[in-house]
Amino acid sequence: MASGNKSSGAARRARIEEMRRAEQARERRNRILTICASVVVVAGLVVGGVFVVKSQNGDDGKKDTASDAKGGNSGDSGHFVTGKDGVRAWTGKLSRTHVTGTVNYPMHPPVGGNHNQVWLNCNGDVYTKAVHDENAVHALEHGAVWVTYTSKAKKADVDTLAAKVKQTPYTLMSPYEKQTSPIELSAWGHQLGVTSASDPKVAKFFETYVQGKQTPEPGASCTGGTM
């Protein structure tokens, strides 16, 4: 009987020892997983922080001719020349200096000039309230087409254009009362005024100027800016 008790006790101790080793192994695995997860989180925060800093400085791996300065004059010189297709092209200089504060542009909506260092998000963004010219111009520099409209534009046209913008990366849309046509489409250095969204020149403008040849910084981000 004593021998049986000894055997039973030894087996129990063996099971307990086995369970202890298994528990220790689980603890080691959990510590390793926790350390790995922490490393991933920290790495993500570092990369995210670098991206945000670069985004706020307009750094997408492309050089920008801009430098910080105060607002005021746009630095532009020249005038519009209207082509056979109805598109007004700016002939002359369009400055690209980053500035703080309000900029006085010679055209409305502006198609270029000194602008804020933070671009307006333009990944098919539709704004229902007026936006800052200085941020929108930076979006144009990235190759976006900016659709603007006045209170004279028909609601059906506004809805049609909004749907088009939402489906088109590198575009944005907002109300803008200081313009001559009910609807204007603007790109860097180019602008088109129309009275209807069904005008065939609208589709042509999108096709030509969304990330078109006029873009000073092709491929630069249209997200990560300001809303």
* Total beta strand runs: 9
What is the level-2 CATH architecture name of the largest domain?
3-Layer(aba) Sandwich
Q: Which word captures the global form?
A: globular
How many angstroms separate the termini? 84 Å
- For this structure, the CATH topology of the largest domain is Glutaredoxin
Task: Give the ordered list of helices and strands.
Answer: HEEEEEHEHEEEH
Residues in helix, %: 25-40%
Mean pLDDT: 82
β content, as a range?
Answer: 15-25%
Largest sheet strand order: 2-3-9-8-6-7-5
Number of domains: 2
| CATH class descriptor name of the largest domain | Alpha Beta
Uncertain spans: 36-68
Which class best fits the helix and strand makeup? alpha/beta
Number of DSSP helices?
4
Largest sheet: 7 strands, mixed
Rounded to the nearest angstrom, the radius of gyration is 30 Å
How does this model look, in words?
The chain is of the alpha/beta class. The protein has two domains: 1-56; 69-209, Glutaredoxin (3-Layer(aba) Sandwich). 38% of the residues lie in helices and 21% in strands. It is built from four helices and nine strands; from the N terminus they run αβββββαβαβββα. The strands form two sheets. It has a seven-stranded mixed β-sheet. The protein has a two-stranded parallel ribbon with strand order 1-4. A hairpin with a 2-residue loop joins β8 and β9. It is globular and about 40 Å long. The N and C termini lie far apart (84 Å).
